[in-house]
Every structure is written in C-alpha cells, then in structure tokens.
Amino acid sequence: MAITPSDWELDLKEAIAGLVARGPAKLLKRVNVDRDDDAVTMADLQAFLEAHNQQSNSTVLQLAYALAQWDFDDDENRGWDAAGTLPRTAERRQRAYELLGLSPEVAARLDTIAPVATMRTTVISTDWDPWYDEARRTARNFYWAHYERYLIEQRKWHAESIAALNKATTDVVRRLADPTAEDTYQTKGLVVGYVQSGKTANFTGVIAKAIDAGYRLVIVMTGTIELLRSQTQRRLDRELVGVENLTRTRVEGAADEFDYEYDDDWLAGKFISHGKDFQALGHPGIERLTLLHEDYDRLKQGLTSMKFEQRYPSKPFYDPDNLMPANVRLVVVKKIKSSLQKLAKDLAPLKGKLAEIPALIIDDESDLASVNTKNPAKTKDRTAINRAITDLLGLLPRGQLVMYTATPFANFFVDPDDANDIYPKNFIIPLDRPPHYMGVRDFHDVNWNSEDDKNDPALSNERAFIRPVGPPPDPDDPAQMQQRELEMLSALDSFVLAGAIKVYRENAGEPAYRHHTMLVHEATNTLKHREQADLVRRSWTAGQYGTPQALARLRELWNSDFAPVCAARASGLPVPADFEDLREPIGEACRRIKEVGDPVLVVNSDQEVQANQQALDFDRNDVWRILVGGTKLSRGFTVEGLTVSFYTRKALQADTLMQAGRWFGFRQGYEDLVRLFIRRDQTGSPRDVDLYEAFEGLLHDEETVRDWLRQYEGWTDDGRPVLEPWQVPALVSQHLPYLRPTGRSKMFNAEIDSRGDAGRLRDFYGLPRRGDTRAKEANYNLLMPLLAATAETRTFRSAPTRPELPAGTFEARIGTIDAASFVDILGKLQWHPDEKLFGPTLTFYETLIEDGRLDDVLIVWPKLSRATKPLQLPGIGPAQVVTRKRRTPPRIDFVGSDSKHRNALERIAGSGTALDDTEADGLRTATGRRGSVLLYVAADLASLPDDARCTAADLPDEPGPADVSILLSMVAPATATAHGRSVIRWKPKRTADWGKPVVDKSA
C-alpha cells in the first residue's frame, strides 16, 4: 500500500532533530529505522519537498535550519567534515548532501527552497575565557531551545535567519563572564544591527541563553517612551517568559486584572509554552517585576521579590547548586532617571549579596540617552541617565552590559579609559543583513553603473520605490498648500492601490496581510502633527475613493507605476493581469482603512491622543491606518505593515536620519509595493534639501564602516586581535568626518597612522574645492602624464550591475608606471582640507615600496560606451569627460566609480569576482606585485559652486586644467598584506587638556 507524508513526516522531523548536533548522516536510513515494507524512498522525499517550502511546512523549515547550521559550522574540530570544507560555501553544502545520502534531484530542490546560508557575524573583540563551550551549551538548553522552536513553528522565520541568530547570540554570550566563576568580572559589549532589522530578537535569544547559562537578574532598558517599553515587554512575555511563568503566581478571581486577559494572541494560544512541569524538571522560572502597561515602580512586596532563594546557605549564590534552580527576575524598564533610580534603590539593600548575583543588563537603543555628553575636562559629573546606568553597574559586580543600536557612533566615541563608563571595551558585533530585509541598498542605486537605464525598475531601485515631493509648505501660501495636498493625494493613492494588491494576493492564496500602514513624518512638534493629520484627512476626502474619478486615477497609477514595478520586482508573488482584477480588492482595501471611521491615527506624546494609542497595538489589532507622528515613531518602535512613507523632516545628524528611516525593515510578501515619498527640493535655492541623497550618503558610509570591521576581524599570527574595540573610533572618523563631535567628551581616542587594503579598490575623491584653481591645476599637472601614458586600448569584461544580469564589456586605455614614481606622485597631490583618509593610505603605499611588495601600477582610463563630444585637454589631446556629481556638504567627495570598472581592476590585482576575462588575467604579473589605478576626467568647471551639477556640455571645447578634476581610485595587489587581509596601524592620540594618553590598552 502506498504511503503518504502523513505516515512518515514525524519520523523525518525526528531524524532531522537527531542529526543537528552530531552532523549530517544517512537521512532516510534514520527515517526508515522502524519500517519494513513501507519504507520511505528518495522519490517520496523529493515529492514532499516539491510540494512545500520553508514557510508552508515546519518539517521543511527544520530541514532547512539543519542545513543552515551546518553551513555556518566553523568548529575546526567538527568530526563530520573530513574534507575540511569552508563555512557558507557551495562545497560545504554539497558535502552535507553527500553525507545525508540525497539524490541530485533532492539536492537541487533544497538549493532552491533553502539556498546556502551566507550571513556572517563580524566580531571585534578582546581575548576572553572560553567558558561557554559546546558541552556547556547543550547541558542546559531550555529557554533557548524553546525560543528556537517558537521561531520555527510560530514565527516561521527563514532557516538562515534562525541559524544566524543562533550563532550571533552564542558569540555574545560566550564573551560574557562565566556566571558560576569565583572571580567577578564585568563585560561591556555592543551589538550593531540595522534600523528595523530584528535587534529585539537578538537580545531575546541572548537573554534565553544567558538564563540557561546561569544569569538570574535580567534588566532590559528600552527607549525613553512607554510605547516602546510596553512593546518590548510584550515581545519578551510572548516569546520568552511564556504561559506557565505568566500564570504561575496568578490567583483565580484576584482583584488585579491579568495584563493579557483579553489579548487575542493569548486567547489563541500564540504565547510560548514551556510545559506545566518545567520547574519540577529543574529549570528556573521567570518572575516579572514589570507588566505590560506598568513600568518599574518600588516593589509593592518590599524586598521579597528581589530576594534570591539559596538552597545551600553555606555555598555562595553563584555556586551551580544554588544558581541553576533559582528563579530569574526580569525587569523591562524605560530609560528614564526616575525608573532606573527606583530599581537601584530596591537593589541597594541587598548589599553584599549583589556581588554573588550574575546579572545581565540589555541596553536597547544604547546611543539614545545612555551616553555621557558632559565634557570631562570641565566636570566630573555625568548626565542623569548615564549616571543612573553606571550606578546600576556599580551595584552589580557580576553585571554584564550588552548594548544594542543601529546607529553606534555615539557609543564609539565614549572614552574607553573611563572604567566606570559604558564604552564597549570587550566586544563590538555588527550583525549581517537578514534575508528579506530592505535597507539602504534596496532604496538607493548604490554602486550604480552610470550607463544603465535609470527608468528601468528592474535595474533602478530609485525608479522602483522613490517618489519625490517638495519642502513643507507655507500654511499662508494657497499655491504651496494645494501642491502639498496633491502630493499627499498621490501618496494616498499608492497606499490604497498597494492595499488592493495585498487583498488580491490574499484572494490568490497568499497569507493574510494583518497590517497595512502609511507613515507621515514631517516634524516632531505635536501641533504640526495635528495640522498634518488634517491635511491627510482633507486629501483623503478629496480622493473620493469608490467613485469613477478615483478609479480612473488608480488605473493610471497602476499602468504607469505599480504594473511595471510589480512585473520587475514581485519575485513570483501573484500580480493582477489587468486593472479590472483590482476593482473589488480596491473596495475591500478602502473598507479596511475606514473600518474604524477615521483613517488617520496621530502618534505622539500629546495627552489628547494617548487614548488612541491602543489602536496602535500591532499584536492585538489588525492595523490598516495612516499614522502621523514624529519622535515616537522614529526610534525603536516597529511600524508593522509599513508600505508607504511620506517623509520630509529635515535632519543633518547621521543617527537621527538613520533612525527616522522607518521604511527600512522586513517587507516579505510586498517588497514591490513599498513607496517612499521623500523631500527632494528642486527650487535652485541654497537652502534646498535632498533627503534622499542625504540618506544615501550617510547610510552608505555606515555600511562602509561595517565593511571595514569585517576586514579587520580575527586574530594575528601571534594570537592577538587584528583590531580591538578601543581602536574602532578612529576607523569611524576617517569615513564620517561630519560626525565628529564638537565637545572634547566625544573626541576620538585613537588615530590611524597607516591603513590599506589588499586587492580591494578604494575611491579617493576628496579633492580640492571646485574654486581652488591653484590646487586643481597642480593635481592635473601631476596626473596628466599618467593619462598620456595610456597608449594601448584593451577590452575588459565587466561585472553585472545586478546578480541576475549577464556580464558586459568596456574599453579602456592602459599604460604602466613604476611603483616608486607612482607613490612619489601620490605624495605631491593636494586634497580637500577635510580629507582625512588619504594620509594613512599614502603611508601604507610607502611601506609597500620599502618592503618590496609593489613593483608597478597599471593605469586604466575607461572609455565611455555612450559617446560624448571629445574635448581638447591640455597635454593629452582629444578625450572624453565624464560627469561625476560632487556630493552636497557636509560630504566633500564626488559620487563613486562604476562597479563594472572596479571589478576588472580588482581581478588584475589578483582578487575580485571571477569572470572569464583573458585581458584582466593576462595583465596580472607573475610576481603578483602589480597594483592598479583607475582614472576618470570629470567635468568640474571652476566658476560653478561646489554643489552645482557640472556636465561635459558645460565645458568649453578646450577646457583648462582648473575646469576638470582627475578622479583617482587605487587597488593594491592581493599579495600586499599577509593572507590578503586589510591592515591597520595605530598610534595613540594625546589630548593636552587631559594630560595623558587617551588610549591605554592596559585599562
């Protein structure tokens, strides 16, 4: 008799669970261990996998999760991989398939539904005691195992994300102090995520593993608003604390109402469960000292709730016999002075016992309010919240501080020599981008190939998602107000149409979209919020949704915008064949948006609207609304279902801008529907603001910092860290000069003496100001001989602008120059006064010459495939001139080089994406000591201001040296550094006002 998956799926799930820890082995052998005539075949397994994917079946997700964990496994002592394959590679995955005994067809299907896991956690760390080993993790694995199962079965996370979370949380916990050790040691570390990228899930996992390991006091400090604190409390209660802990001390019929009494998820059984007898089996319980809508207050029960039970009074509390069965105290507290001081006052009477209690302090949004901004040269006092945090750490000798943020620069600038402050002296861990996360690279055309079609939504993220609007209008100017109402109506049309497409997809079998939201963010002032809300309501009324006029507008929007973008970006999701398929879904979308009457919800601190905040509980309610707000929605708080954003708030601080980017986040199932209406002034006024360009510059620099950290992680040959946390601020300072604080309390604590890459091309575009004709002419005369030396023309293959596109070709003139002459030219070039990157790089190249690691440099001058009128350049003759826009202040550089050119030069240097390119391969030298320089001649008319766009058409037929700028990008040979890694050399920086070295590695 034929068998069906219902007969053997449970056996498959158990077989997978049994293999996770030991490594891959014959899978069907274990599935069929108790089977005779009804054995499961490879064909059965293939049919099962063809019918399901990770989101539709928990067993498939569990198999994908096992594969992802094996992909990530970097234990050099793993016994299952005798071939020694590298983590996160196709070779590692193929080895797992072989050991599982899978057919090529099954392996191919798994490659489709569970691709090789490539996420990686970067760790910048000092040395640590390796107490949290595999044996320790598996011996007590209760709360983490349940959280892991919850993510698989209820949240249905992507397998790679869960595996990456497992590894990242282990990387954090292993660097904390051993909670059972006699010696007390405080650890301070920083975890850097992306805006709206799942940092809460990471610290939930860290808490789970820390509790399993023995931490018994957990304090979670959220942002400064109750909306975020209660959201965090609920997440922890639902996904970690669980049903049994929440109800363990609950008395039926008690006067106090249970905080989840009428919660839909509670009633539907969606809170995590640990089993009724989990404490009888030796696992600790969790006691909450804060509730869903109740921040920390002085303990009503006196000190009894803080008194940790001790089975063996003769032994210290941290002894495993006392520690492991003891219950955990959990506090979720706002980061405000009063709440933190109340907590400290309740802890203080415990006195000596606190020295025995392993405590974990999580500081969410740690760059907000936590950092001491008072000048240490003028006062020893601290800001109130910073003082409250340091006082709390002073009470807890076994307290471990783990800080979380997506904007870490303020944390980097804390003085690392202040032992009482919160500098992350032990570790900094930047998390990788999770699957299905939409961030800066998904809204901007980073590394854009200037010759591609910007009007193609398949190629251009800007074309797909960005819709420009003007500056905030003058309320007294009717024309400006009318223009703003038209812009708002366009955003509302997109909101309605995107909602209709979601309804269409639900009808086509996709999971329900519980939330569909639009965000309007123009100011932080509550009065402005009322005005914006009124404007949105007027525009909504003017939209007349449901009338023929509205349908005509939406049809045009479908044809001109959503249809082409969905065709290019839907990734297999259902897309209407015609606008007529959306008529009924439009009606349903409007019904949901208007279901509560007013489609607009104001979210701010105004007491008049506090009563409406219940409507913003995304866990309790289905929210199809238009949100108007500012600060409350610009940091930490997650706006679920956010599809359309209308953002015009001007801000020039990097962290403010990044945190305001609520449109970044997870948009699985509707990535193609997201639209960002953002301020892009085009009046020609010096006060014009292009927020889209500002986001691109600031966020691109933030990702560059992450890239540098990845380059510098790991250990040297003598066992020391390549980069320690105290060295990170200097790294930041070179990339983000405009973030340098004005107060001495945030002066950098180290500076780079030498920095360089091996086999990686870097742009050096911080050239003199456009009007600095003397410096520009000097640079032209220095670099002009390099251009003149490119007498030969070659054709190179170019890397594709998107992974799914084919490689192309480009022509370039080439020549060579000996290394010493090239470096001599570099040493004479002039730069913008704020350019801080090139000096350390020049030192690196000078060192290459001294050490004999650079023989010569290949000069590459690309030709334009789109012909422009050749101009007569002095000393060169006829040549094409490119347009490279100067960025607006505070940026000092030009827009970067083309990706197709960069990859070719990196291949010449011995690295780069592998392509079948005989030209690039043939230009590499046998010694491997050839570098490359990429040159462009950019239009840069001296008479124009720095922020004006200059094209080749603006130049005279015979421009002078001051009318152009020669842009320089360089790549050192892949052999320039040991193991092809980037290198950095440091020197301490002295501050006269403090009278001592700021960097003290013994601290």
Please describe the topology of this protein.
Elements: H1 5-20, H2 27-31, H3 42-51, H4 58-72, H5 90-100, H6 104-113, E1 124-125, H7 134-139, H8 142-153, H9 159-173, E2 188-192, H10 199-213, E3 217-221, H11 226-247, H12 264-267, E4 286-288, H13 320-323, E5 328-333, H14 337-347, E6 359-363, H15 384-395, E7 399-405, H16 409-412, E8 427-430, E9 437-438, H17 440-443, H18 461-465, E10 466-469, H19 478-507, E11 516-521, H20 526-543, H21 548-569, H22 583-593, E12 600-603, E13 624-629, E14 642-647, H23 654-660, E15 665-666, E16 675-679, H24 691-712, H25 728-735, E17 750-756, E18 762-764, H26 773-788, E19 792-798, E20 808-818, H27 819-828, H28 838-851, E21 856-862, E22 871-873, E23 877-879, H29 899-908, H30 918-923, E24 930-939, E25 964-971, E26 983-988, E27 990-991, E28 996-997
Parallel strand pairs: 2-7, 2-8, 3-5, 3-6, 4-5, 6-7, 10-16, 11-13, 11-14, 12-13, 14-16, 21-24
Antiparallel strand pairs: 1-8, 9-15, 17-26, 18-25, 19-20, 20-21, 22-23, 24-25, 27-28
Helix pairs in contact: 1-4, 3-6, 4-9, 8-10, 9-10, 14-15, 19-20, 19-21, 19-22, 24-25, 27-28
Structure description:
The radius of gyration is 30 Å and the shape is globular. Strand 27 and strand 28 form a beta hairpin. The N and C termini lie far apart (73 Å). The model is unreliable at 733-750 and 988-1003 (pLDDT under 50). The protein is of the alpha/beta class and 1003 residues long. It contains 30 helices and 28 strands.
